[in-house]
């Protein structure tokens, strides 16, 4: 299992190295792994909008449902669309050859994307698509220039238009996209879409490290035990050396 995770991580690196894009201030995701309602909404959004192209081949449906509080029968009925068993890994049926032909490169596995890129990058990426008719899918992305994927959340956000400004780069004045503004055609308001992007980010952060909360809880217990042990050892040392001094 560890070998597969390492291989998957290094497989992601070239793709996301190219996705780094220009130096753009990242928006703060503000994700909260203790917010199970957010994780459940994020899982629903991912399964409906992202899983068609991306997959999470190192994460199982059953583990996911259990961790984020989704009853197994409900998760199987509403979040598994390809007939997979609840114990299966979260994969899609798209062939890599077809994906590479359609998008220019096979969409990467997203199991570890939050650990590779960080939650702020993911959140900013989801909010940085804008209309660009020169691109094959009619959209571009501020922090991932020449992105090869469509804006899959467009029906929720609407089609954002770019906000540009003239900047000086190396003695030349260039037009730079510094932000976006939605056209209002989406199903969600601006605040609602922001929350949807945060929910997906939160879910990807959980998938990248499913045992994080449990590990942190164990860590606090270990630290508490060490503090108590130190106090006991301190008084024991004083008792042993009392007659010597």
UniProtKB/TrEMBL annotation:
Subcellular location: Membrane
Cofactor: heme c
Any one of the GO CC terms: membrane
GO molecular function, one term: metal ion binding
Keyword Methyltransferase recorded: no
Listed transmembrane segments: 218-236
Residues of the Cytochrome c domain: 37-211
Protein name: Cytochrome c1
């Amino acid at each position: 299992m560890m070998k597969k995770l390492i291989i998957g991580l290094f497989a992601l690196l070239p793709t996301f190295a190219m996705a780094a894009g220009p130096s753009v201030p990242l928006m703060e995701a503000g994700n909260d792994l203790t917010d199970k309602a957010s994780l459940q909404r994020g899982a629903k959004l991912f399964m409906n909008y992202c899983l068609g192209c991306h997959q999470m081949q190192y994460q199982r449906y059953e583990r996911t449902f259990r961790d984020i509080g989704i009853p197994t029968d409900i998760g199987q009925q509403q979040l598994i669309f390809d007939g997979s068993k609840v114990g299966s890994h979260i994969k899609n049926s798209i062939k890599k050859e077809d994906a590479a032909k359609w998008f220019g490169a096979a969409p990467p596995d997203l199991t570890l994307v939050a650990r590779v890129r960080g939650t702020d990058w993911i959140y900013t990426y989801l909010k940085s698509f804008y209309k660009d008719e020169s691109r094959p899918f009619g959209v571009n992305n501020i922090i991932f220039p020449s992105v090869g994927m469509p804006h899959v959340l467009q029906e929720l956000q609407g089609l954002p238009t770019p906000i540009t400004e003239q900047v000086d780069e190396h003695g030349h004045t260039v037009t730079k996209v510094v932000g976006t503004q939605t056209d209002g055609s989406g199903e969600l308001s601006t605040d609602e879409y922001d929350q949807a992007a945060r929910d997906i980010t939160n879910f990807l952060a959980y998938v990248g490290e499913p045992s994080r909360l449990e590990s942190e809880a164990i860590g606090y217990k270990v630290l508490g035990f060490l503090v108590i042990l130190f106090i006991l050892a301190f008084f024991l040392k004083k008792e042993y050396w009392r007659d010597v001094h």
